[in-house]
Amino acid sequence: MTKKIMMKGNEAIAEAAIRAGCRLYFGYPITPQSEIAEYMARRLPEVGGTFLQTESEVATVNMVYGAACTGRRVMTSTSSPGFSLMQEGISYIAGAELPCVFVNVVRGGPGLGDIQPAQGDYFQATKGGGHGDYRVIVLGPSTVQEAVDLMGLAFDLADKYRNPVLVLADGLIGQMMEPVELPEMRDLSNLPDHSSWALVGAKGRKPHKVTSFNIDPHELEKMNKRYQAKYREIEKNEKRWENYRVEDLEYLLVGYGTSGRILKSVADMARGDGIKVGVFRPITLWPYPYEALAEVAEKARFVLTVEMSSGQMVEDVKLALEGRVPVYFYGRMAGVVPTPEEIYRHFVKLLEEG
Amino acid sequence: MARVEGYVEIDTERCKGCGLCINACPTKVLEFDMGTFNSKGYHPARYKGTGCIACGFCYMMCPDVCITVYRSVPATVGK
Amino acid sequence: MEKAIFNPPKSLSKREFTYCPGCHHGIVHRLIAEVIDELGIREKTVIIAPVGCSVFAYEFFELDGTVAPHGRALAVATGMKRARPDLVVFTYQGDGDLAAIGTAETIHAANRGEKLTTIFINNAVYGMTGGQMAPTTLIGQKTTTTPYGRNHEKDGYPIHISEILSTMNGVAYLERVTVDTPQNVRSAKKAIKKAFLAQIKGLGFGLVEVLSACPTNWGMNPVEAMTWLREHMAKEFPPKLFVDKVGDG
To answer: What value does the mean pLDDT take over residues A110-129?
Structure first.
């Protein structure tokens, strides 16, 4: 039996990656996630892995690209400004169809912003932060345990679809301590086989070429069609979400990550007052679980979306409901985490306004 | 000592007529084939037919890897 | 009987080069392939191509290969080599890629002593984008973005990457060469071989800077361009052996 231990989110994320078979980490320090790099620097040598502190996030993302070309599990982690710097490389990685995992422990922005928990990077994460038609699978944990579980899933999805996967956490998940149950160490000899395309030397076979490049527009369009077919497949197979107390709901709260977690307390408060409130919490932010949201939201008199941003995911909520249900928004920005009480007060105000 | 006999073979379709081989040839046995265009539209280089000493200078300077240089070898040594 | 004594190396693919007539990229490609053949490392060597005229370089070699984002070849190579230290990984980069947008990646890979090999093509101009100023463009040299000639007051001075890298402990082999004569082609090949040996022997980072002609963007015929290279470029960037920890053994 595995037992629960207390771990800080950032360290739990790092250990979960190692247990998922990741032996390669490249990163540049940035608050509030530097503990991931520090943990990796200490821990990876113990398991025969490689940690490298890079000269910049631009170098980092390209080292991830190079390492991913060999088919081995590789990751990096960063926070908002650093993730912005990586966008060019992520576009190349998506185009070259390389499996790898990113963690963005989001902080307040824009610009230098601050170092407190925020959700202002949702558009960048889910709508394509770099150039071109590509998609990154985005997973949004709401607890340290879920962050651990999603790290394993992230590596598996990256390998399955040869696509970058992003774990979109925030400073709260990264910095808080919670009891977690860690998975067993994965057997490295049992990881997916990438020998059909990986760059490991053309021994006894035709050379492999891995690029996002084709000078012929018709050929490049074929590559794009292949990407799009893969994205449709991911949309079909990989949507994940959590419903909380939705069975008899009259009102629906929607939030992801830390705000999704807070919304459960809000629903409990409302139910204490006899108001039937449920919560929908998307776990995959791309692909977004539009249909599952629509299914629970259609019973609601209105939907209140709560984010630690000026309102980004709320656009996907509206896309899911296509005007059939009123959608309201409440948010705090710049690193301010809303309390359940203030969200509930806002909800009650909406009720009273009818 | 007998003079070394060489022979130059030029892939005229690959050749871009840059002239670096002609410029490098110490015995001046290469020239532009002014009577021919290849499919790229260049006058390719051409071996005049005699006088090559198999020094390989043309091969070394050719930016398009169009040139193979052969050296005559005694039959007893050759394969 | 005739025997081919100079013929194309096996590590080159059959693809025709996409370079302009008289461009030195092709000479350097062939030398790299010859070195790989001679060292017997084709089956474990990976090329990281840059962005620029040689963006297609990964197609010209019979090797596993990829293309890095502009300037990032040495970061990509670092990631690859750290993931698979048993591979031989080399980057092929131009002056814009290596010495302008990718300066940080170049300096830090060299400084870490990454077991990598870099072939740096310095032709003092941006080729693929149509002849704009490079970081290595000479003072007074006309390009499409220095139509009155490079002016140091406005544009700064040509950057000497090899001199900068020569101060770094991580560098195991560093030489600046030309390929303007058969003799210099031979010397360039020796330098390239040593830059690969620096990696194979685990000594550190190896780089060969090749002064190269770009007849098209210099507005000269290929033979004139070589004369200009000798008389102007080689004065600003003198061919020199900077670092050799490989030795002749």
So the answer is: 94
